[in-house]
Structure formats: structure tokens, C-alpha cells
Specification:
It is a single chain. This protein is of the alpha/beta class. It folds into 2 domains: about 150 residues, Rossmann fold, CATH 3.40.50; about 220 residues, Rossmann fold (3-Layer(aba) Sandwich), CATH 3.40.50.1100. Helix content is about 45%, strand content about 20%. The strands form 4 sheets. It has a 6-stranded mixed sheet, with helices on both faces. A hairpin with a 2-residue loop joins strand 1 and strand 2. It is globular and about 55 Å long. The N and C termini lie far apart (about 50 Å).
Length: about 400
């Protein structure tokens, strides 16, 4: 059976991960969304409209780019899938336009979501403006301060932004807050989850909408080089950009796949967000995942310099791929992330998002250790949102590029 027809199963499980762990009322809404997705998204009308949006509004396909100078420094051959050139500056619009189009076909009036670094919030606010829908975004106060340009962009696009003031005031709390808002009126609104997480069918839907990244990448790399890359890598928080590009190569057994988690300041509790590397199976936000949790099963505090990665769990498909060994998961700390951020900026003229810089850092190490091999990085976003935070706290990078 084809991989994408096999996973997830009818109950929304990828192996033992995923499923629906919510109230009966919300479970009924999840099945309505699932039924609508399978009936609407397979129609010629839906597919044609989405393809037109991607070409004429988003600017797809985004290119694959060879990093000549960075490759000369580290050896190997480093390539980037330039999702930073997708409209709004990240991969997030791929699934937001799909989710908003589905909401339109379902007759919904309002879209609700959480955001960490703000890219999902900006993308959903953009989609809502495009389709004429109301938009409500929940964002932690800590993340608003770190990615303030995206906060302003959301408001300019007409979204109502709800600052989340409890707990660590970051991504996990933003998800909690957005779920609570959605439960107040699930009939007229839809929760547009920002990654391959949450109850079924969202991990499947977001992966399917992000699949375009993998399809394009595979075709472009073959056209550029005449062969497939030796390795493909992407950063992993919830994991939408990673599943997007991995899905294009998942059936190519000779292509190594690497997911890169944020090791933050240290591997002490509260200093990192490496759930796949150090978590254990648990339930969070309506699905089963590898979770950084305490002895009571409560999520532990997490941290990353990249606001889009500081989540205590990961997508259920990633959990399955970890267990099967098809994807290898590793970690990059804040210092290594910053070095990649500055070096890609200086050597290639591309300022990456801090999230994407984790994957760039891994690619630099891989190239150094595999000088005859090629590696393709999903450059999932650009660093416009991060430059004020980075420069205010770390300067313009002189000590990182020596």
C-alpha cells in the first residue's frame, strides 16, 4: 500500500501516535472537518483553486539554490529549498491557504489559531484577508516581544491578536488559549492548527498541504543535478516544514532524512525543546506524541531561541518515523544556531529565520563530515522577524563568523 494511503489510519494514528484525545463535543467537530476534507479537497474545483493560489498569489514554485560559498568553506554540497521566498516569508502559507480554502467551502466565518514566531499567524491572517474571513490569533507575550514585526503584520492584515499572559507566555500556552476560544463556537469557526500536531485530521491535513514542498524539491533537485540528494534536513518543533519536505523523499530509501530539534541553552529541564530526542510517549493538545513531561504526565517547560520551535511535543508522524528509523533526529543548540544564522547571511546573502538556522547548522556539520555528498535544507523562513531580537542580544555576529 502507498505510504500516504497507509498513514495515518482511519482513526488518525501514525503507528501508535496521533489519534483524537478531546471532549466528545470537539471530537464530533474533528470528524466533521475530516469528512469535509476528504470530500472537498479531492474535488477538481478545490484542487484547481488551490493550484491557482499557489502559482499566482504565493509565488510557487520556490527555487532550490546551491550555496556555492558556504559549500566551499565546509566541503560537501549544500542546497536550500527557498521557502523563505514563499509569500509572507515562510512555508506556513502553504497550509494556511489550504485550511482557509477548506473553511470557505465549509461555510465557516472565522479562523482561529496559535502562533509562536508569528509566521503561522501572519500566514493565516493573510489567508483570512484573501478569503474575507474573520481571524483571531493567540500569541504569547514573550513571543510578541521577540517577533514584534510579525505582531504588527498580523494587525495590519486585519487579525485580532490575543496576547497570552499565563504560564511561560510562549507557544504551548498560545495553543491552550486558541483551543479555548475555538470551543466557544466550533460551528461558525475553525481552528487552523499551525503544524502537523493536534487531533486528527490536522497532522494529516497540514502534511498534505505542505507536501508541495517535497514534490517541488524532488523534481527541482533531479533537474539541477541529475540525481537525488544524499540527505535532506529540516528543523523540527511541531514539524510542518520537515514533514513537507520529507514527504517528497520518504519513499526514496537511499536519501537520508534528518530532523533537527532545538537544544537551546543546555539539556537541563526548561532549557531545550528536544521532545523526540528526550521525551516519552504522552498526550498533549488532543493527540499522542513524544512529550517532555514530568512524572504526573504534565508538560515540562521548554525553551528555544527560535519561538517557532519551543513546543514540548512533536507531530505524531515524526514520532512514528523516529521509531521506525526512517528519519534520524538530532539537536542543535542556540550557539550553533546563531553561527549558522550569521554565516548564511554573510556567505550567501540570505538572512534565515532562527528556526531554519538549526537545519542550516546541521547541514554545515554534515557537509564538513561528508565532503563528497549533497544535502538539501528546507530553508523554511526568512529572518526579518528575528533581526531586531538577534542584534539587540548578540550584535552583528563578528565573533560567530571568524
Amino acid at each position: 500500500m502507498d505510504y500516504f494511503k497507509k498513514f495515518p489510519n482511519d482513526k488518525g494514528y501514525f503507528g501508535e501516535y496521533g489519534g483524537i484525545f478531546v471532549s466528545p463535543e470537539l471530537e464530533a467537530e474533528m470528524y466533521k472537518i475530516n469528512d469535509a476534507y476528504f470530500s472537498i479537497s479531492k474535488s477538481h474545483e478545490f484542487i484547481s483553486e488551490l493550484r491557482s493560489i499557489r502559482k499566482h498569489f504565493q509565488g510557487r514554485p520556490t527555487p532550490v539554490y546551491f550555496c556555492k560559498r558556504l559549500s566551499e568553506v565546509y566541503g560537501g554540497r549544500i542546497y536550500l529549498k527557498r521557502e523563505d521566498l514563499n509569500h509572507t516569508g515562510a512555508h506556513k502559507l502553504n497550509h494556511c491557504m489550504g485550511e482557509a480554502l477548506l473553511a470557505k467551502y465549509m461555510g465557516k466565518k472565522k479562523v482561529i489559531a496559535e502562533t509562536g514566531a508569528g509566521q503561522h499567524g501572519v500566514a493565516l491572517a493573510t489567508a483570512a484577508a484573501y478569503f474575507g474571513l474573520e481571524c483571531e490569533i493567540h500569541m504569547g507575550e514573550v513571543d510578541i516581544a521577540k517577533a514584534h514585526p510579525n505582531y504588527i503584520r498580523m494587525k495590519l492584515l486585519g487579525a485580532t491578536v490575543i496576547p497570552v499572559k499565563h504560564g511561560l507566555k510562549t507557544l504551548k500556552e498560545a495553543v491552550d488559549s486558541a483551543f479555548e476560544a475555538y470551543l466557544k463556537d466550533p460551528v461558525n469557526s475553525i481552528y487552523c492548527i499551525g503544524s502537523v500536531v493536534g487531533p486528527h485530521p490536522f497532522p494529516m491535513m497540514v502534511r498534505d498541504f505542505q507536501h508541495v514542498v517535497g514534490v517541488e524539491s524532488r523534481e527541482q533537485f533531479l533537474e539541477m543535478t541529475g540525481e537525488l540528494p544524499d540527505a535532506v534536513t529540516a528543523c523540527v518543533g511541531g514539524g510542518s516544514n520537515a514533514m513537507g519536505i520529507f514527504s517528497g523523499f520518504i519513499r526514496d530509501e537511499d536519501v537520508e532524512l534528518y530532523g533537527v530539534e532545538p537544544a537551546g541553552r543546555s539539556l537541563q529541564i526548561g532549557d531545550h525543546a528536544c521532545s523526540l530526542s528526550y521525551g516519552t510517549p504522552g498526550v498533549l493538545h488532543g493527540f499522542k506524541t513524544y512529550l517532555l513531561q514530568d512524572e504526573k504526565g504534565e508538560p515540562q517547560p521548554v525553551y528555544s531561541i527560535a519561538s517557532g520551535l519551543d513546543y514540548p511535543g512533536s507531530g505524531p508522524e515524526h514520532c512514528m518515523l523516529k521509531d521506525t528509523g526512517r528519519v534520524k533526529y538530532t539537536c542543535v543548540n542556540d550557539k550553533e544556531c546563531l553561527e549558522a544564522f550569521y554565516k548564511l547571511s554573510r556567505f550567501e546573502g540570505i538572512i534565515p529565520a532562527l528556526e531554519s538556522s538549526h537545519a542550516v547548522s546541521f547541514a554545515m556539520k554534515y557537509a564538513q563530515e561528508n565532503k563528497k555528498k549533497s544535502i538539501l535544507v528546507n530553508l523554511s523562513g526568512r529572518g526579518d522577524k528575528d533581526i531586531d531580537f538577534v542584534v539587540d542580544n548578540y550584535g552583528i555576529g563578528e565573533k560567530y563568523i571568524k
